[in-house]
Amino acid sequence: MSVGGTPRHLNPAVQSGIATGAPGAQLFATLVRFDDQWNAHPYLAKSWDVSDDSRTVTFQLVEGATFHDGKPITSSDVAFSIKTIKENHPFKTMFGAVDSVETPDANTAVFKLSQPHPALMLALSSQLGSINPEHIYGDGQDPKKHPRKSENVVGSGPFKFVEFVRDQHIIPRAE
């Protein structure tokens, strides 16, 4: 894969730009996707429900979804990812209305919002909303400088990381 630049990072949860976003969107999955008519469709979330006041959005995760290392994707990973984005990403304000993400069980992520957020689903479908494995990136290290930011990247997207040679290429493999 050629991206027209050298990414500083392959994790779109903490870095923006096409050099990160193009490979990151292949390596990391999101909760939802949009079609060409702007309709939301399941991806890692099999369903969702919005409360009457639009301040609570409850996602039910796809059972059996895994990261590339075989570990299950859970609601804790969703909560960790949103927290990581809110603390590190240049466009973190896209999740500014998210007060918290509750995890009542492994397959349920409940987004609590300070106010209705009409663009939440769109933000969750973009590279910005990539779901990261907490068991890898939640080890206390700075996510922007994490040793696995561009080496041995573990994602959940349609392609698995194989190799990144700076200033040359990124090789993903279809999973």
Using the alpha-carbon principal axes, give the shape.
Answer: globular
CATH fold label of the domain at 30-145: Dipeptide-binding Protein, domain 1
Strand order of the largest sheet: 3-4-6-5
Low-confidence stretches: none
CA radius of gyration: 15 Å
Could you give me the name of the CATH homologous superfamily of the domain at 30-145? Dipeptide-binding Protein, Domain 1
Biggest sheet descriptor: 4 strands, antiparallel
CATH class division of the domain at 30-145: Alpha Beta
Helix and strand pattern: HEEEEHEEHHEE
Q: Helix tally? A: 4
Average pLDDT, all residues = 81
Q: Please name the CATH architecture of the domain at 30-145.
A: Alpha-Beta Complex
Please state the structural category: alpha+beta
How many beta strands in the DSSP annotation?
A: 8
Q: What is the CA-CA span between the terminal residues?
A: 15 Å
Multimeric status of the protein = single chain
Helical fraction: 10-25%
